[in-house]
Amino acid sequence: MGIPSFSGCTSGSYCSDQQATKVGDKQTQIYHRTVTTLTGQGPAYSGSKTETYIIKPNAAGIDTWTLAATTTDGGKTQTFTDAAGADFKKSMAPGGNLNKNVQAQVQKTLTAGGAKQGLVTLPGTSGSLEKITSEQQKALGIVSPNVGNSPTGDATSAPVNLQDKIGSSGQSRTGAGSFGTHRYPLNLNSSSQDKIKFDMLEYSPRGFQQDNKTNLAQFAERKSTGRKSLGTVFLPITSGISEANSCGWGEDRMDPGQALLANVALTSIQKGLSEGFGVAANAVETAAGAGNQDMKNAIATGFAAAASGAGGILSRTQGAVINPNLELLFNGPALRPFSFTFKMSARSELEAKEIIKIIRFFKQGMSPQKSSSNLFIKAPHTFKISYIRGKKDSHPFIGEIKECALQSFNVNYTPEGQYATFHDGPMISYEIQMQFTELEPVFNEDYGNSGSLPANLLFKTPEK
User: Fold this and answer.
1) Across the strands, what pairs with 208?
2) Residue spans per domain, the chain
3) What does the angle CA 190 – CA 194 – CA 197 come to, to the nearest 5 degrees?
4) Kind of pairing, strands 14-15 and 28-39?
5) Among 16, 80, 182, 393, which residue has the least CB neighbours within 10 Å?
6) What's the pTM value of the predicted model, to 2 decimals?
């Protein structure tokens, strides 16, 4: 069923998003949304009126949002219209599932809209709507009523979630929780399905510190604890997740002549010039000694090559080359990349809006920031990626990931191969591709040393 647009949100009212509740023995799914008007004057409103709209076919058989019930006492009693069926009325009675869900819609909308000392229930409480104090308003972040509507009167743009607030003009979105918590699909949090959690963190530079033993400057450890998440996205674990651990190794050559010069230089630095000259003299004496024909041939061909400017003399005359002592040597750690692809198709108007918020979450989070003076460009936010097994905090059988930078983020707006939208504009499907890279390499010590190999793939001290 397509979700029709809604035009019942009048100026000054608080309008919820649409939700669905199953009612009756047949578990019929009813789509509903609310329009609440506070009566009296703020900051202490005297009461409220809430109208509940449901989707019903009109005389022409077209689905439309239709007024079904009105309450002025927080849902204790309802005045029904002809659009309300028997199952709807029964479920709207106090204690009914539909009544509970509708009141939760109202409470969330009023809180998000910022109804000052209005009839609002604090998060985590139950019961009818109640007044809140100015101190509680401040704790909730409530500022002022949101009464503006879109030009079309569509209520989907009326409520403003506190989690979506941004700083004043010219400032980046900062502060714990400022990007909100989002998930796809919408019921992902209530299921035991394994999922991926993306926590956005404000970038923490390492800086310098002085080593107490050597008095030399070194980089400090990156702060990994006590950092509050700016926002979180939960997505289902898709097929194709992988990791690639690697280290930097490369070929290196050093022939006997280069080895001799290196030994002379190293000895001179460590033990003094006289010791270094002694090593050189001993090498010359050995090369000139009787029976050392290989050394004599090497020196002779070396001088011949220098005099003639021709190379490969030893190979042409002796069928040999100077031993290059070829060896694969460690030249440094490597940073691990991680790629993710998610395809998201909306099943409702609310889920379509959530997908847009998720895309906005990553696009804004990975973008560099201007300093207040515009003199500097600050680093983008970073991300902590966690695999979650069911409702646990981590997945011990998938390798852990250190803090990452989001280096690329691609959106395919037509993953089905054709341009198609819902009636109110969102695309029917979105596909996002993300490329992350860890900020720091993984070291042996990260896995700990418990005396025996643990039966999991987690680090010794997981970063949160």
Assistant:
1) 219
2) 14-160, 180-247+335-447, 254-325
3) 85
4) antiparallel
5) 393
6) 0.58
